[in-house]
Amino acid sequence: MKDLKDKVAVVTGAGSGIGRALAQNLAGRGCRLAISDVNESGLAETLASLKGADARSYALDVSDRDAIYAHAAQVVEDFGHVNLVINNAGVALSASVREMTDDDFKWIMDIDFWGVAHGTRAFLPHLINSGDGHVVNISSVFGLIGVPKQSAYNAAKFAVRGFTESLRQEMKLENQPVSVSCVHPGGIRTNIANAARMGKSENAEAQRKGFDKIAMTTPDKAAEIIVKGILKNESRILVGPDAWGIDAINRLLGSAYQPLVERFSRRNLYV
Fold it and tell me: Tens digit of pLDDT for each residue in 53-89?
């Protein structure tokens, strides 16, 4: 996919943050857009910002499998075909393995992993039929390394990474006209930390302030990096200098990265 003009792009979680910035970036490149979010007011704001673009908005809860499949069918009915799907919708949870509830664990997996898996599977036949398709799944730097109090988020994002990398190989081996990219953002200045669920003993305010300090990249910059990665057909798209640093540490040290994370966590999470 060398040119995005007139391509039909689907973006989930488009009501704010990276999703909104992606929709705006793609609209500026001439894409026709199907944007969705569970937050209908935020979604309406995004749609209003896409002045002059051929865009439609859809209320969608990505934790609902049947809703995702119905959404895929509706988008194809509305636009005729689909070329690009960006499974971006996601949430956060900060809690230790001992403290997190089953409901919180299920909540984050249903959105961050199953939302991506079902979103990919629902649209994949349509992407193949387009003759020029691309799947982009948003993982995280926490899909590269494990971090204390992020076990559930790690589980979801590692799963997204494995699922996406496997799919990319399958598409190549089957000679299908679908490219696949996995995105690993570092700290992005979005509202995800403010909307995160917290364990009982977590200091929510301190966690959010800490996130704000390490969030190095704006959503607009993240979107630009992601879209350029799509056009280059990159298998792994790293977003932000912290993402590049974490990826390098992981590659150089392997599992020996863990003592570094433990020292950081002792100073910042266990105080």
Answer: 999 999 999 999 999 999 999 999 999 999 999 999 9
Is-contact 36 46, C-beta < 8 A?
no
Burial of 94 (0-12, 13-18, 19+ CB in 10 A): buried
179 neighbors 134 (Cβ within 8 angstroms): yes
Are 107 and 95 in contact by the 8 Å Cβ rule? The answer is no
Closest-CA residue to 9 (of 88, 95, 92, 62): 88
DSSP 160-189: HHHHHHHHHHHHHHTT-SEEEEEEEE-SBS
Residues 6+ apart with CB under 8 A from 120: 85, 87, 135, 137, 163, 164, 167
The catalytic residues are: 153
Q: Flag residues of the chain having pLDDT under 70.
A: 192-195, 201-214, 271
Domains of the chain: 8-268 (3.40.50.720)
Sign of the alpha-carbon dihedral angle for 108, 110, 113, 119: negative
Residue type, position 242, single letter: D
137 residue type, one letter = N
Tell me the two tokens of residue 130.
């387009």
Give Rg (Cα) of the chain.
18
